[in-house]
Specification:
globular; DNA replication; single chain; OB fold (Dihydrolipoamide Acetyltransferase, E2P); binds adenosine monophosphate; Helix Hairpins; DNA binding; 7-stranded antiparallel sheet; D-amino Acid Aminotransferase, Chain A, domain 1; 691 residues; 6 domains; binds zinc ion
């Protein structure tokens, strides 16, 4: 969408793009304070390059499309790079990798790329650094700057723990002058800790690890840098002089060079893999993409490099980037888009949650159209306003988040958003209690609350009534057939068949499903009632301890609080729910409508006496017939341990529908056996891997 507002005329478009790219270059490289997500910047730069190629008449010496980074700042002394520090060309999909490889093959007179060896490495999202060792001693560290002149940040880089002061290995194993290139970065964990500290000190949080690393490096005072747990990974050589004859640095391959670097004590990524042929490269890119959240640092791509150093020389470089390498960009996890509106949704307790209605945008691998904004304070804090362009963040399977507005500084901003005074569903007042951050619709007859309560009751994790989804419930409420959950049991097939979009057969199936749900165990009913603070595990604990609904209804806070796993807060919430007059009317009806309302005895095995005893099992994806909780519970009642992350100790990984890619990759890497959903029951019964 960032391209939508540009002029169509090529000359004007190019000139606008040049201004924009130069501006964002400066924000990113010189000021460490980007305004727009990287993916937006890439879009602008790619478009500019495309136009300059298509219209050579407008091409320009020194166009920002040809530039590497940004000019060095005046904060530090300049350092001239003897060997220029280049940028990398980008490939945005597999086919662009293939075309790059074909161009490369032509440049080095090869028929095919099938027998070429490539190094495939994570593109660490940090700051490029050139570190020079003279006679094995740390001498200087310089940033990339514009590729020719960088900044001398030696004092700061010297504080980084993973940058050795002195190279290891016998004298004569390393060159007299060794300039090593690599990335200074901030590991995820350190980044989170740093932001926690910033929050505590009421200081501004860092937007992402790269910014935090760049900001930490550009400190005038190295003691500030020293407090930031930066790290370094080496991936290349710069200027090298005086290589002793027997040194491991006498090598013809990139892999040999990396192992030489590691041999003298420089840190090298463990995730570098050599691949033969471009298809293997592509597979490895997919693997790294799937595992990107399991690495200890952020990556914004995968770098693919020709391994043979002689062939590299033959391939050569353009003014901006080598021909022998390319960066495969990964699906962006941050994009900008238009915030169309902020609306409010009403939950089953009446809580009014503001959410962003976005111009749909593909981010983190899926299309995002809505994102919760949590509550009034969050909207104010983020200061997002309908009409703003906003940055949306989504990583893997986490829920999408609106980070904040993109403020270009030009033009007037739309007015700030105000929390609506009335409920969008029932027009009753929305009330925010003092000292609370949440706002509520307090009208118990609010149709939006009814809808949420009944849909939640019927949902898979609760009473599991198939065919009673939100749409059908909405129709039942509109037709005034249903107001509360007890009304479900008074529906008859004729009434159901009369609903819009409902045929005879589906009406009958739904009636059967409703009938069937009367036998659901008490624990599911408790989940379905949606009692505040009471989750599925707590519901199970309470149901197992009380067994019977009437007994539960008459239990005191003290009795409930004695149940293992149930604290005072939950106990009090249950009792308050059971004794609320409006709820009591509904609850009184349930037994009369034929619900069994008991918790069956389940053979719970204690640790160590089930078929899976001593074994740890990871479940990923949906196993048909089980919710995630139930699947894990089943593992536990077979004596096993269910955990959420794959490690060397994992016995096996159960793979259901839509499994987590990173778990699979990890299991493959560690050689952990995988069991598909159809083998799950056998696994539970025997404790052994199914055939
Ligand atoms: P760009 O920032 O798009 O110009 O991409 C080039 C930059 O990628 C280099 O200057 C490095 O800072 C960075 N980079 C990160 N990891 C690697 C790697 N494994 N090999 C080469 N460059 C890398
Ligand atoms: Zn309402």
């Amino acid at each position: 969408m960032i391209l939508d507002n540009l002029p169509k005329d090529p000359a004007q478009r190019i000139s606008t793009l040049r201004e924009l790219v130069a501006h964002h270059n400066e924000r990113y490289h010189a000021l460490d304070n980007p305004e727009i997500p990287d993916a937006d910047y890439d879009e602008l730069a790619t478009e500019l390059r495309r136009l300059e190629t298509a219209h050579p008449e407008f091409a320009l010496e020194g166009s920002p499309a040809q530039q590497v980074g940004a000019s060095a700042s005046e904060l530090f002394s300049p350092v001239r790079h003897t060997v220029p520090m280049m940028s990398l060309d980008n490939a945005f999909d597999d086919d662009e990798i293939r075309s790059w490889a074909q161009r490369l093959a032509r440049a080095i007179d090869r028929q095919s790329t099938d027998d070429l060896v490539f190094s495939v490495e994570p593109k660490v999202d940090g700051v490029a650094m050139a570190i020079t060792y003279r006679n094995g001693l740390f001498a200087q560290a310089a940033t990339r700057g514009d590729g020719v002149v960088g900044e001398d940040v030696s004092a700061n880089v010297e504080t980084i723990a993973s940058v050795p002061r002195e190279l290891t290995g016998p004298k004569g194993s390393f060159p007299d002058v060794l300039e090593v290139r690599g990335e200074v970065y901030l590991p995820f964990k350190a980044f989170e800790e740093m932001n926690t500290r910033q929050r505590k000190e009421n200081a501004k949080e860092f937007a992402n690890p790269r910014n935090a690393a760049a900001g930490s490096l550009r400190q005038k005072d190295p003691t500030v840098t020293a407090k930031r747990p930066l790290a370094f990974l080496a991936y290349q050589l710069g200027q090298v002089e005086g290589i002793p004859a027997k040194s491991p640095f006498v090598t013809l391959s990139h892999a040999g060079m990396l192992s030489a670097l590691s041999g003298v004590g420089l840190p090298v990524s463990h995730d570098v893999v050599s691949c033969v042929g471009i298809e293997q490269v592509i597979l490895r890119c997919h693997e790294l993409e799937a595992a990107r959240h399991d690495l200890d640092h952020e990556i914004d791509g995968v770098v693919i490099k020709l391994d043979d150093l002689d062939l590299r020389d033959r391939a050569g470089s353009t003014s901006r980037a080598p021909r022998w390498a390319v960066a495969r960009k990964l699906a962006p996890e941050e994009r900008s888009t238009l915030l169309r509106d902020i609306e409010v949704s009403i939950g089953r307790t009446g809580r009014a949650t503001p959410y962003a209605v976005l111009e749909p945008v593909v981010v983190g691998g899926s299309t995002v159209e809505f994102a919760t904004l949590h509550n009034e304070d969050q909207v104010l804090l983020k200061d997002v306003r309908p009409g703003d362009t906003v940055v949306v963040h989504k990583a893997g399977d986490v829920i999408p988040e609106v980070v904040g507005p993109v403020l270009g500084g030009k033009g007037k901003r739309p007015p700030a958003w105000k929390f609506p005074k009335d409920c969008p569903a029932c027009e009753g007042p929305l009330v925010r209690l003092e000292e609370e951050s949440d706002t509520y619709c307090v009208n118990l007859d609010c149709p939006a609350q009814q809808l949420q309560r009944v849909s939640h009751y019927a949902s898979r994790s609760a009473m599991d009534i198939e065919g009673l989804g939100e749409k059908v419930v909405q129709r039942l409420i509109d037709a005034k057939f249903v107001v509360d959950v007890a009304d479900i049991y008074e529906l008859d097939v004729t009434a159901l068949a009369g609903l819009e979009g409902m045929g005879e057969l589906s009406a009958k199936n739904l009636a059967d499903a409703i009938e069937h749900s009367k036998q659901q165990p008490l624990s599911r009913l408790l989940v379905g009632l949606g009692i505040r603070h009471l989750g599925p595990t707590g519901a199970r604990d309470v149901a197992r301890a009380t067994r019977d609904f009437e007994r539960l209804r008459s239990s005191s806070i003290e009795t409930l609080a004695e149940i293992n796993g149930i604290g005072h807060v939950i106990a009090e919430s249950i009792v308050r729910f059971m004794n609320n007059p409006a709820n009591m009317v509904v609850l009184d009806r349930l037994p009369k409508l034929g619900l069994t309302l008991v918790e069956p005895e389940s053979p719970t095995l204690s640790d160590g006496d089930g078929p899976l005893s001593g074994k740890t099992v990871v479940v990923t994806g949906a196993v048909p017939g089980f919710t995630r909780d139930e699947a894990e519970e089943a593992v536990e009642s077979a004596g096993g341990k269910a955990t959420g992350s794959v490690s060397k100790k994992t016995f096996c990984v159960v793979v259901g529908d839509a499994p987590g890619a990173s778990k699979i990759t990890k299991a493959e890497a560690l050689n952990i056996p995988m069991v598909d959903a159809s083998g799950f029951e056998a696994l539970l019964e025997t404790g052994e891997l199914p055939e």
